[in-house]
Design goal:
By secondary structure, this protein is an alpha/beta fold. It folds into four domains: 3-127, Response regulator (Rossmann fold), CATH 3.40.50; 159-165 and 184-332, Rossmann fold (3-Layer(aba) Sandwich), CATH 3.40.50.300; 334-404, Helicase, Ruva Protein, domain 3, CATH 1.10.8; 411-497, no CATH class. It is built from 23 helices and 14 strands. The protein has helices at residues 11-23, 34-43, 60-70, 85-93, 106-127, 132-157, 168-180, 197-206, 228-233, 250-253, 269-281, 307-312, 318-324, 338-356, 365-373, 379-393, 406-409, 411-414, 419-426, 433-436, 445-463, 468-475, 479-493; strands spanning 3-7, 27-31, 48-52, 76-80, 98-101, 187-191, 215-219, 258-262, 283-284, 293-294, 298-303, 327-331, 362-363, 398-399. The strands form four sheets. Strands 2-1-3-4-5 form a five-stranded parallel β-sheet, sandwiched between helices. α4 (85-93) packs antiparallel against α6, α14 crosses α16 and α21 (445-463) packs across α22 (468-475). The longest helix is centred in the first third of the chain and has 26 residues, at 132-157. It binds adenosine-5'-triphosphate. The site of adenosine-5'-triphosphate (ATP) has 18 residues, from α8 and α16. Residues 3-117 form the Response regulatory domain. InterPro entries: AAA+_ATPase (IPR003593), AAA_lid_NorR (IPR058031), CheY-like_superfamily (IPR011006), Homeodomain-like_sf (IPR009057), HTH_Fis (IPR002197), P-loop_NTPase (IPR027417), Sig_transdc_resp-reg_receiver (IPR001789), Sigma_54_int (IPR002078). This is Sigma-54 dependent transcriptional regulator. It comes from Chryseosolibacter indicus.
Length: 497
């Protein structure tokens, strides 16, 4: 009997899954924390592991790494709370065999498990007596391609998650997507963070002849200076310290399809030179490699600042800017497309209902009013997070003002009228640096303390009827620090849930 280990802190889900899988002839073990799972793995060798990406005591990536260290051959299927291509690529890169998104569908989960187990058996058969090194390179690359095909196939079936707004601006964008999609033009998409640039790039890819090939999204803002080249172009074994195996880069993975380079202005200058070669000669070399590889990749880049300005200030190569600038799409911030707000809010409500198995029907008129007046600095990402939370909190069929964050409802009252404070945030002095650095959710304790501080600040503000000077005095901080702390909390909450 094949053994499956379920790792999920949702006890109900573990119970339901256990019953379902046992009925289908599997022996099922369960662990409700990462720690328990690792203890079980000391003495048991399961045939397959089903693991939630967000455990209370461990992040998905760290548990995946630990499982792979202990038992590299066991197939791991990741359960993710939402369908996000970035998470999917991330978990596949870390060695997961596949992923399923919540809500879990019985047929899908069974099929995914059976496929993973069948793959494992055929891998084991190939491994017996085969000349491992001879075909290692080829099979690595085939595996990468197979994983990508899987991710893309899933993404296409999830495409029902995307909708288009109702504002004239959005209709204009849709026209542009239709127009430029089928061509091979390189495109620059401008827009604030969370405004939907990646989704637009995906839609362009879907409308192109390349749509059966991979769409790969890379956030250049998160690539380190040292590893950016290797991430994009891959590397050969031993080409630098730490290059223990061969790596296929994002460009090679995207061959035949489309690559989306977000925050392109953050790409290190030497990598920009390599990129220029790719756009001019349609060829690339892996880091440390000697062989030219032919490339046929459509490039879509995005930035929240004008690339022409970055080129003029010497941060971005001008020749590269002209290469990319065959077509431009400008995505206005959500606050400038008021007609889109409720279209997207309702869409995110339907999506969240499905994820949570709830049936919340609509927003109260008061909530609609707040939504339409709010400034949405985090754009669609912020709206999505607010709707997700509100749907979760709501215990009736209508989302009312109680389920909407206090600072959204009281946005106007919380405004700092003195622009000096805003300027201080844009150019923080040394003493305020820690307060303005973007906080990281994974920092655990840090985010807890930010949340607690914020609660306290709000309480104090309420006490003094939103008089910021009085509140700062009571809190024994200056007004600028008060402003920074509120901003820090908001940045934290504009990250994707
Ligand atoms: N047309 C749409 N339909 C449904 N959801 C959307 C749409 N556009 C954006 N979203 C959702 O809004 C969130 C932000 O979108 P996206 O990641 O594309 O923004 P972005 O501009 O690329 O952000 P960033 O620059 O910060 O990476 C995502 O969760 C995405 O799924």
């Amino acid at each position: 009997m094949e053994k499956i280990l379920i790792i999920d802190d949702d006890k109900d889900l573990c119970f339901v899954l256990k019953r379902f899988l046992s009925k289908h002839g599997f022996e099922v073990l369960e662990a409700t924390t990462g720690k328990i799972a690792l203890e079980i793995l000391e003495s048991v060798e399961p045939d397959l592991i089903l693991c939630d990406f967000r455990l209370e005591d461990m992040s998905g990536s760290s548990i995946l790494k630990k499982i792979k260290e202990k038992n590299p051959s066991v197939p791991v299927i990741i359960i993710t709370g939402y369908s996000n291509i970035k998470t999917a690529v991330e978990v596949m890169k870390l060695g997961a065999m596949d992923y399923v998104t919540k809500p879990l569908l019985p047929d899908e989960i069974l099929l995914t498990i059976r496929k993973a187990l069948a793959n494992k058996t055929s891998d084991e058969k190939v491994g017996v007596g085969s000349n491992e090194s001879a075909n290692a390179e080829e099979s690595e690359s085939v595996k990468e391609q197979e994983k990508l095909a899987l991710i893309n196939a899933k993404r296409n079936t999830e495409s029902g998650n995307y909708i288009f707004g109702d504002s004239p601006d959005f209709k204009n964008i849709l026209n542009q997507i239709d127009l430029v999609g089928p061509t091979n033009y390189s495109i620059i998409i401008y827009g604030e963070s969370g405004s939907g640039k990646e989704v637009i790039a995906q839609e362009i890819h879907k409308r192109s002849k390349r749509n059966h090939k991979p769409f790969i999204a890379i956030d250049c803002g998160t690539l380190s200076r040292e590893l950016a080249g290797s991430e994009l172009f891959g590397h050969e074994k031993g080409s630098f310290t730490g290059a223990i195996g061969q790596k296929i880069g994002s460009f090679e993975l995207a061959n035949g399809g489309t690559i989306f380079l977000d925050e392109i202005a953050n790409l290190p200058y030497d990598v920009q030179v390599q990129l220029l070669r790719v756009t001019q000669e349609r060829k690339m070399r892996r880091v440390g490699g000697t062989k030219d590889i032919d490339l046929d990749v459509r490039i879509i880049v995005a930035s929240n600042r004008r690339l022409w300005d970055a080129a003029r200030s010497g941060q971005f190569r001008e020749d590269l800017y002209h290469r990319f600038n065959e077509f431009q799409i400008n995505v206005p911030p959500l606050r400038e497309r008021v007609n889109d707000i409720m279209v997207f809010a309702n869409h995110f409500l339907v999506q969240t209902n499905k994820e949570l198995g709830k049936n919340v029907k609509r927003f109260s008129p008061e909530v609609e009013d707040v939504f339409k007046k709010y400034v949405w600095h985090g754009n669609l990402r912020e709206l999505k997070n607010v709707v997700k939370r509100a749907t979760l909190l709501s215990d009736s069929s209508v989302i009312d003002i109680k389920s909407i964050p206090f600072e959204l409802v009281n946005y106007k009252k919380l405004q700092f009228d003195n622009t000096a404070e805003a300027a201080a945030v844009a150019a923080p002095r040394e003493t305020t640096v820690t307060a303005t650095q973007p906080p990281v959710r994974e920092a655990g304790l840090k985010s807890v303390s930010i949340d607690a501080e914020y609660e306290w600040i709000l309480e104090t503000l309420k006490k003094v009827d939103f008089n910021k000077s009085k509140a700062a005095k009571l809190l024994k901080i200056d007004r600028k620090t008060l402003y920074n702390k509120i901003k820090q909390y908001k940045d934290l909450n504009n990250q994707e849930l």
